[in-house]
Amino acid sequence: MADKQISLPAKLINGGIAGLIGVTCVFPIDLAKTRLQNQQNGQRMYTSMSDCLIKTIRSEGYFGMYRGAAVNLTLVTPEKAIKLAANDFFRHQLSKDGQKLTLPKEMLAGCGAGTCQVIVTTPMEMLKIQLQDAGRIAAQRKILAAQGGAQASAEAPAAPRPTATQLTRDLLRSRGIAGLYKGLGATLLRDVPFSIVYFPLFANLNQLGRPASEEKSPFYVSFLAGCVAGSAAAVAVNPCDVVKTRLQSLQRGVNEDTYSGFLDCARKILRHEGPLAFLKGAYCRALVIAPLFGIAQVVYFLGIAESLLGLLAQP
């Protein structure tokens, strides 16, 4: 049986609700992922996700784990809404008479969704990464100043904490709109393959758990399918995520490499840090994406927005 058609406003609201809930739950893990991916050999401050979070709380307080969360909470609604609605749109356009999509068409729909979402994802990630990594840079400088002696520590000025508004204004002033879209190519190379893997895998896993007599899968099936598909896709594209994170980081720690582009970054990481560096933060990313997309698919398939819109439409 073909799935019932859902209105565009409902798709957008469902995607937004899912994004807000998901980001609130997993943002500290995402911060740890960014800091683990950005630290280079010889400048390691964190040994693991838990070590990173503990040190962040000690140096920046509990809310230090949520640095950059405001950017995500603001932009995740349009991002997730575009991603889910675009995939649904492309699947509908590629289907014929309600027939089940072939795997290549499912992958093509995912490709379209990933391409559409980078309009919002790239500037969101650009701002978020600066805010998330600022604490690592400040802590590294503090340690180096302490090693240089009390006098050097006293002379080292405290680095001001940037805000998303200041970063946006500075980027627009110095680089124009292109400044917010630095790393666009790397974001495409991460998000398009992610969507190509995620959406077909989710659709097929969700279908496996759908009782023949029911139109929708049970609550837990949609959640587990979203978690498994999200984790698999996240780990598969983690090398591109590492490169993207490095390219979008405007501030560097002491003696850290700078990069001129995607290939230059990939070559330097491979040469200086080895192939395993491309898996930095992979388990953090899996822990972020699994519940994020599990929650997203549950909200989407439960039709929370349809219920809200139905209540508002009642006289």
TrEMBL record:
Keywords of the record: Membrane, Mitochondrion, Mitochondrion inner membrane, Repeat, Transmembrane, Transmembrane helix, Transport
Residue spans of the Solcar repeats: 6-93, 101-208, 217-306
Compartments (UniProt record): Mitochondrion inner membrane
Record GO biological process: malate-aspartate shuttle
Superkingdom of origin: Eukaryota
Gene Ontology CC entries for this record: mitochondrial inner membrane
Membrane spanning residue stretches: 12-32
GO molecular function: L-aspartate transmembrane transporter activity; L-glutamate transmembrane transporter activity
Gene3D superfamilies tied to this protein: Mitochondrial carrier domain
Bilayer topology term: Multi-pass membrane protein
Xref: InterPro entries: MCP, MCP_dom_sf, MCP_transmembrane, Mito_Solute_Carrier
Chemical reaction(s) catalysed: L-glutamate(in) + H(+)(in) = L-glutamate(out) + H(+)(out)
Cited PANTHER family: MITOCHONDRIAL 2-OXODICARBOXYLATE CARRIER 1-RELATED (PTHR45678), MITOCHONDRIAL GLUTAMATE CARRIER 1 (PTHR45678:SF3)
Function text: Mitochondrial glutamate/H(+) symporter. Responsible for the transport of glutamate from the cytosol into the mitochondrial matrix with the concomitant import of a proton. Plays a role in the control of glucose-stimulated insulin secretion.
Similarity comment text for this entry: Belongs to the mitochondrial carrier (TC 2.A.29) family.
Name of the protein described by the UniProt record: Mitochondrial glutamate carrier 1
Organism in which the protein naturally occurs: Propithecus coquereli
Primary gene name: SLC25A22
